[in-house]
Amino acid sequence: MVASWQRSIEYAVKPGCIDAPYLENPNVDSPLARAALPIVTRLHEQLADDPVSTMITDRNGVVLSRTVSHEGLTTRLNRVQLAPGHVFAERYVGTNGIGTALASGRPVMIAGSQHYVEELRDFHCAAVPILHPVRRTLLGAFNLTTVRQGSAGMLMALARSVAGQIESEIAAISSRRERALFQDYMDACSSVRPGAVLALNREGVMMNEQLRSAVTGADHHALLDHAREIADDPRFEGTRSIALPSGRVAELRVSRSRRENSDAGAIFRVRVIGRPQPAPAVSAGAAPTRSGLGLVGSSPQWLRAVAETEAAFRAGSWLHLVGEAGVGKRTLVHAIHRAHGDGRRLEMVEAPLSESPHATEHWLRDVRELCAQPSTVVVLRDVHLLGDHLRRQLTSLLAHSDKAATGQLVIASQPSMVTTNQELDLLCGTSVELPPLRHRYGDIEHLARFFLLKYRPSGESSCSPDALTMLQRCPWPENVRQLESVIRGLARRPAGGIIQVENLPPECRVSSHKVLTTIEALERDAILRGLMDRNSNVQRTAQDLGISRATMYRKMRRYGIVPSSLT
């Protein structure tokens, strides 16, 4: 108890008033909450008319659910903010059952005057941490609160019993999901034509010996990275092909393991195509480029995509170019057109801003007229933004075109994890997917040097090894475009010299893959700069920004900000 009060003093909690932050939209559909619901409901029925409240919190002390059998107790609990959505971690309300159990990792009984905040001293609380039954990580806490003075031993025994039941239910749910995934994995391994099989969810990975021996080293890590991204989207099923660092291609046939309306994970049937390709020799400090095109990058995924695009363009084929925003689709098209355009005009056509009948009719007419000119290369950009009706109209228009009498067509779009543009792929004949920057192993260093030389031709700037390491760890949700923007800002510094870690902008210090709006990026940068100015002190940064600590933590999770990585 002394240690808890000492922590309360260090957090500068005010003993004279309660200040439990409120968290909007807490995750009340978490596995913990779902497992606890039937158990707490049964207990609530057994405690009818007794002035006892039961609560479930997450690991941060956010109250997810509360049951109260006595109306008078409900009023008293609301008065001290002990209600769903409020955060009862020690850093906000000092010593209390919920916060102290979570902070200490042990069951605690906090009775009356043992509470740090005076307004809580009418209550007696028994709280027990709830741990994951396998990983033994902290999931949250179960709390019993009453205003009656009685046997602390009885109250604690009841709290321990209920927490144990909740952990057992979580184990049963996890076991059902794991058994479902394992059964589907075994079925895939023992199918009529068995091959390399991978199964994974957020808790585990299974792979058979065929896959383990076929994919090793950097290919192994790349395959798992791609598979995790696919598995994180429970809507995706189908086939995807990914380029591996060795130059081989892995064809993934994906199916979901579903039981009881719950997604248990993903099953991947893997076919590896091709042979490993030797890495090109690159002199120290040089930025490797694709011969004749001037494109920076030497990763096998990138070189393969460039080669396939170049071959299709030189053959005069219609081409569907797929890639996330900022990966370099436009740069690649311009480079190949310069090298192999043969005097043909390059026309970039944007997706229409509106899908009103007038706008779509005008857009389709422009596309038809441009495609009718054999001396033109037509690039339709952002086709993924087209609505279903306009997409069907475009497909019909292109299907009825005479390819022999039209210009060359390049369709550029962003990939979808849910649907595929099969009709467009069939019309184009060739479909190439450009890898995102996070999958272009080793290219970030070369691109950073290339952009530094581009924006500071004197060559007086370079990145320190630590700065390069941080650049390589950044997920770059906006890909090469974002990296170029960062390097451009660094190159414009008044002084040249070595770029150190502290010179890098805040966006290089996050782990989120989410593409942000302008407003969100400004908010993220304000939080990052505040944390760096305050030596990662979350409480003082929240005060500086005029937001609650709970809001601060929520936004940090959203933007992938880890305070320990900022020092």
Per-chain topology:
Elements: H1 2-10, H2 31-46, E1 52-58, E2 63-68, H3 71-79, H4 90-93, H5 97-104, E3 108-111, E4 124-131, E5 138-146, H6 152-189, E6 196-200, E7 205-207, H7 209-214, H8 217-231, E8 238-243, E9 249-259, E10 262-273, E11 289-290, E12 295-296, H9 300-314, E13 319-322, H10 329-340, E14 345-349, H11 357-371, E15 376-380, H12 388-399, E16 408-413, H13 422-428, E17 430-433, H14 443-455, E18 461-463, H15 465-473, H16 479-491, E19 497-499, H17 518-533, H18 538-545, H19 549-559
Parallel strand pairs: 13-16, 13-17, 14-15, 15-16, 18-19
Antiparallel strand pairs: 1-2, 1-5, 3-4, 4-5, 6-7, 6-10, 8-9, 9-10, 11-12
Helix pairs in contact: 2-6, 9-10, 14-16, 17-18, 18-19
Describe the structure.
The longest helix has 38 residues, at 152-189. The protein is elongated, with a radius of gyration of 29 Å. With 567 residues, it is of the alpha/beta class. The strands form 5 sheets. Strands 2-1-5-4-3 form a 5-stranded antiparallel sheet, with helices on both faces. The protein has a 5-stranded antiparallel sheet with strand order 7-6-10-9-8. 42% of the residues lie in helices and 19% in strands.
